Amino acid sequence: MGVVFALVTGVLFGLGVFQLLRRDLIKSAMGFYILFTAINLFLLAVGAFDGEVAPYVEPTTVNTLAEAVPGGTPSDPLVQALILTAIVISFGSYALLLGMLNVIGKRNKSLNADDLNALKG
């Protein structure tokens, strides 16, 4: 399963960088989001731990059906927290990027990077 994660992450990362370097700013924004997805998948692939018990359950507790939870090593909850935080941050930054593209498109009547002379320093 690690090879599948590595291949998919590599393909998504390459596709995201390819789209990020395009001249059309909408395609660049799509590449930005694909790159964020590749990073989240990379975090999932690297941090996945095959625990025997869910991270929120103590190995010695009793559940609501009065059955003992089997003991074992719990999964690492840090990976899930990092990915959830990364998803929220990427969504917020993507919304900000789309808002800036909206303003650029209205002011310059174009989203082609070659036509945007006003953005040059």
Query: Based on the structure given, which CATH architecture is correct?
Result: Orthogonal Bundle
Q: On the 0-100 scale, what is the average pLDDT?
A: 83
Strand content: under 5%
Say what oligomer this is: single chain
The top-level CATH class is: Mainly Alpha
Percent of residues in helices comes to: 55-70%
Q: What is the CA-CA span between the terminal residues?
A: 48 Å
Major sheet: size, sense and barrel closure?
none
Low-confidence spans: none
What is the name of the CATH topology?
Answer: Helix Hairpins
SSE series: HHH
Topology:
Layout: H1 2-20, H2 25-47, H3 77-108
Helix pairs in contact: 1-2, 2-3
Word description of this protein:
The chain has helices at 2-20, 25-47, 77-108. It is mostly helical and 121 residues long. The protein starts with a helix and ends in a 13-residue tail after the last helix. It has one domain: Orthogonal Bundle (Helix Hairpins), CATH 1.10.287.3510.
Keywords:
121 residues; mainly alpha; Helix Hairpins; elongated
Short description:
The protein is mainly alpha-helical. The chain is 61% helix and 0% strand. The chain contains 3 helices and no strands.
